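sanity check this:
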Amino acid sequence: MTAVGDIRGTTTDRRAVISLLRRLRSGEGQANPLPIWEELRSLGDVVRAPWGGYFVTGFDACSQVLRGRTWLVPDFAWQERQPDMERWQAPATQEMTRTLPRLNAPTHTCQRRALGNPFDRATLQAMRPRVAALASGLLDDLEDRLRADGEADFVHTVAEQLPMHTVGDWLGIAPEHFAHILDFTHRQVYAQELLPTKSELAVSAQATLEMRAFFTELIGQRRARPGNDVLTGWIHHWDARYPDDRATADQVIYDLTMFITIASLETTAVLLANAVWFLTQEPSRAAWLRRHPEHIDDAIEETLRYDPPVHVNSRIAADDTVLAGVPIAKDTTVHVLYGSAAHDPRRNEQPHVFDIRRNGSHLTFGGGAHYCLGAALARLEARELLGQVLERFPTLRPVTPPEYDTSRVVFRRIASLKVTT
């Protein structure tokens, strides 16, 4: 048994945990999850989940899980050992289990090495003018809607569109497909929730069929008519790696293309909408940042800390171990709570205060081998967009608070954010 920290114990108050989870899924809990994080942390750094396994609430304990090599992701091998196989055999779940976030070594290592760093400094520098141009065009749309109607939905007009246009442009996907991709992405994600219902899994299954058909056709068309884009490069690489096994090459290319596309959409959209919401709900905050644009990156990091786009991520104990003084048996699931960790006062003082100059800590992009591939790209998109919003819309303000999709707990989605000038 290996010790991985001794912070605080756990609780067995099942009813209290169930009550908190119900509140988290409510409209009030989605709009302001901070009191729920605080109550969960008060139960311990490692809190027993009602269905088995544990929630991890403290920053240090979460960091240990995300960065430690003794913690695995729930891959096919783990799923096959579970008693509730029906849950894991859902089509959408199976589809996502083949992607990078659900692969362990050595398969994960092989694919990450082959992929390299798709968003290294040189790539981002090359992408920056295009991202700036895309942001400018979308803000033109926002300006037109504000002029015509007096208010506009920032999420639908800008926040969801910028990551879609950015990754679509990068992969060479025609803009007429963007609305369809966003639609099946919103529906497919239900399979990645903690406890999806049968009806939600059915919605995800249909979205998965549409997703599979779209990306399979896209790859086939690109193989027939290569271009000067990233997808063409992946096809050349994996075809050369598996010259006698086209099916395997196609599967890897599909998994990479599908995952990188959909993974870059909802999470970045939440970051962009949150950043605009936090800055414009207090005009003095936006005014200060407009005078001090050198702190735009700090505003982005504080947004990521204060309200992370992903609330939960799961890991599996590779061996019997101890976490925060709590014995954890091999194969046990632990759920890392990003928001709770970021609001741990032992790591960030006065965590309930949104402070652009905090220079605080967060785990929003994960850690270790599974650190988010698109972190640098999301930051680039946010940086370019916020700079332009501050310059072009000095009087932008929200009409109402954001509206959240309350069917989500793991992956947050801001369904609407109405703004005016």
Observations:
- The chain is about 55% helix and 10% strand.
- The first helix runs from residue 14 to 25.
